[in-house]
Design brief:
Elements lengths: L2 E3 L5 E3 L9 H12 L3 H13 L2 H28 L6 H8 L6 H35 L21 H24 L1 H25 L26 H12 L15 H30 L3 H4 L8 H9 L4 H35 L7 H4 L3 E8 L5 E8 L1 H21 L4 H30 L10 H17 L9 H34 L4 H26 L1
Antiparallel strand pairs: 1-2, 3-4
Helix pairs in contact: 1-9, 2-8, 2-9, 3-8, 3-9, 3-16, 4-5, 4-15, 5-6, 5-12, 5-14, 5-15, 5-17, 6-7, 6-12, 6-14, 7-9, 7-12, 8-15, 11-12, 15-16, 15-17, 17-18
Length: 544
């Protein structure tokens, strides 16, 4: 049976149609991808850092506005380049010289740093809520608590390494059912997505019963901290931006939209507005319903704030908090499953472009399996199911390495570490992509049917640079932010060095192949030099 490739670089049976999506479906898809585990974990961190409730709400509102600006920028990209692939396509068009360099660097960082670290952050949160579900306290609280100022090798096995093992078990479970059956995986993921939406609505609406309590709104968490220091904001802002991440999801499925310049704009704007409202309601519920000592009694961060919220609104019932924590765990697993599914397709896409010269032939392979299924009218149906087995296994190995080695070797809270690396990394490319839109407009001045106001592009870029600059400000009580960024630089330096090696290998191969052609050889050498220079420049800029 002949086949082609769909938008996820997945083989599609001949004659299989692509369902054109409407605005409502686009809104649902975007909302589902934006609302992950962040809103169940990060509000306690933000409140602890910022202290003043009104400032907390303003920061969450600002996060929504910045995300809306970014979403509008990507809407123009989608209207101009009606191809799937997101940043990979946009960077390739905006920065054509050296050829594929920008898209190659993004793909490498996305596959080896951004996507797996996001998966690890989500699973770390799932593990913490699982611990709460069985023990009844946060792993950062109690007698046997994790000390975030010690690395994993210095912490006690229980609960530190127990959480790591739980996260890996979830990862094995998710990867396993994606390997077994694609349709089963889709059904499970859709069910978990519904669970996630129910939980966020319960939080947003459940706090209504406590809205008469306004004590927490009258003063900051710490009476002595009327003005929060600037160095308290970086971690808070990182967590907020992490919670909003995913607003560019629809740009990876543009061929499923009819008139994308219209429907993509409506879907993006509506979904960001919906998510922002839900996040504001959830934070208002947390601040109103929870006693302030839930945040202040912990020496570090409260990363199981949703469980404490359930306990508060259900008459201080520990049983209710444990039972309802299960739904947060399921929501987190669903978020991770979506990332595992899409991440494997990105690996296949990069392998098709031969971004990994030695391993590409293996990573690009799909396992084919004939499936017999009974149709709705009782007829027998037969189709071929395709699974990117090697890509899933490579992603699994990368995530396990990050959970155990990277997470266990740095003296910082694992969730904060993973979210900071992922958010910091992806925002570098958001800035580069937004700058690329200015270059693209100059190259194609009249091609785009939708143009975002230039002021929005500039505000988004300035916001990104401010965020990057703030990320290097050390935390006032420790060196969390500094360590987090140093860890990112070490990871990115390793990645870029490997990229340079792989690129050189590819170009050397091309040179050998065209050894009889002096001109081709000289061109290859030039490309190699330009590539190495670009990579080294990127590493220097990041390190600065």
């Amino acid at each position: 049976m002949s086949n082609s490739n769909d938008e996820n670089n997945q083989p599609r049976n001949q004659g299989e149609s692509i369902e054109l999506l409407g605005v409502i479906y686009g809104i649902g898809m975007n909302v589902n991808n934006i609302i992950g585990v962040g809103i169940f974990t990060t509000p306690g961190i933000v409140w602890k850092q910022v202290k003043t409730p009104h400032v907390v709400i303003l920061l969450w509102l600002a996060g929504g506005i910045v995300s809306l600006f970014g979403s509008l920028i990507y809407t123009e990209y989608g209207a101009l380049h009606r191809d799937n692939g997101g940043e990979k396509i946009y960077l390739e068009k905006a920065y054509p010289s050296p050829r594929l360099m920008a898209s190659y660097l993004f793909s490498f960082m996305f596959i080896f740093v951004i996507r797996p670290v996001i998966i690890c952050a989500v699973l770390q949160s799932a593990a913490q809520y699982t611990w709460y579900m069985f023990v009844g306290t946060s792993p950062l609280d109690g007698d046997d608590k994790i000390d975030p100022l010690l690395n994993g090798w210095q912490n006690k096995f229980k609960p530190y390494w127990i959480l790591k093992l739980i996260a890996i078990l979830f990862l094995l479970l998710i990867t396993g059912y994606h390997l077994l059956n694609r349709k089963l995986a889709n059904k499970i993921n859709h069910g978990l997505a519904i669970t996630k939406m129910i939980v966020i609505l319960v939080i947003a609406l459940g706090g209504i019963s406590k809205y008469h309590n306004n004590e927490n709104w009258k003063k900051p968490l710490d009476d002595n901290s009327i003005n929060t220091a600037v160095n308290s904001y970086p971690i808070a802002i990182i967590q907020i931006l992490f919670s909003y991440n995913g607003w560019n999801t629809l740009n990876y499925s543009l061929d499923e939209f009819r008139n994308p310049e219209v429907r993509l704009k409506l879907s993006n704007i509506s979904s960001i507005v919906i998510v922002t409202i839900l996040y504001l309601l959830a934070n208002v519920a947390f601040i109103t319903a929870l006693p302030s000592d839930v945040i202040t009694k912990t020496e570090h961060f409260n990363e199981t704030i949703t469980a404490d919220f359930f306990k508060s609104i259900f008459f201080d019932s520990s049983v209710a908090a444990r039972v309802l924590s299960l739904f947060v765990v399921l929501s987190a697993v669903g978020t991770a499953a979506t990332s595992v599914w899409s991440g494997s397709r990105v690996i296949v896409s990069a392998a098709k472009s031969n971004f990994f010269p030695i391993f590409s032939p293996q990573l690009v392979k799909w396992r084919e399996r004939e499936i017999n299924q009974q149709g709705q009218r009782g007829e027998n149906m037969r189709y071929t199911e395709y699974t990117p087995v090697n890509a899933l296994l490579a992603q699994l190995a990368c995530c396990i390495f990050i959970i155990l080695i990277v997470g266990g070797s740095i003296q910082v809270d694992s969730f904060v570490l993973f979210t900071s690396i992922a958010t910091f990394s992806v925002w570098i490319f958001y800035i580069i992509t937004s700058l690329g839109l200015v270059k693209t407009r100059k190259r194609y001045p009249n091609n785009s049917p939708f143009k975002v106001p230039r002021s929005i592009i500039h505000l988004f870029i300035v916001s990104g640079f401010l965020f990057i600059a703030l990320s290097f400000v050390p935390d006032k009580e420790s060196i969390h932010s500094y360590i987090v960024q140093i860890s990112f630089i070490l990871v990115s330096s390793t990645a870029t060095d490997t990229t340079a090696t792989d690129t050189t290998t590819t170009d050397t191969t091309a040179t050998d192949t065209t050894a009889t052609d002096t001109t081709a050889t000289d061109t290859t050498a030039t490309v190699t030099t330009a590539t190495d220079t670009a990579i080294n420049t990127t590493a220097i800029v990041v390190a600065s």
